[in-house]
Amino acid sequence: MASTPAFVAHVLDLLDGLGPVQARAMFGGHGLSLQGRMFALIVDDRLYVKADAHNRALFEAAGLPPFTYEAKGRRVQVAYHEVPPEALDQPEAAVQWACEGLAAALRAPARRR
């Protein structure tokens, strides 16, 4: 589950229109955050954005799979769905999908530290 620095930089460039997105290395991938909320993941040079009950159907209708990983011998699915591959070549599309993830992150209760 590694992400290349070049891909992370590419995604940050794509999302420049969204605002000052920050990438933080975590578990071989990266978490992307804005306004103090994590809204996306980069894992294996793939971009996943947060989904919730309000927007999950959008991802499912587009056939966009959730991020899954294996832990303790079982498959775990998290609430982040992959963006369409063509969005990685189109800043407007990338920002549009990222906005879905950011909206889901902002709807979620803030975590206490």
TrEMBL record:
It comes from the Bacteria. SUPFAM superfamilies: YgaC/TfoX-N like. Residues 13-105 form the TfoX N-terminal domain. Coiled coil: none annotated. InterPro entries: TfoX-like, TfoX_N. It holds the Pfam family TfoX_N. This is TfoX family protein. The lineage of its organism: Bacteria, Pseudomonadati, Pseudomonadota, Betaproteobacteria, Burkholderiales.
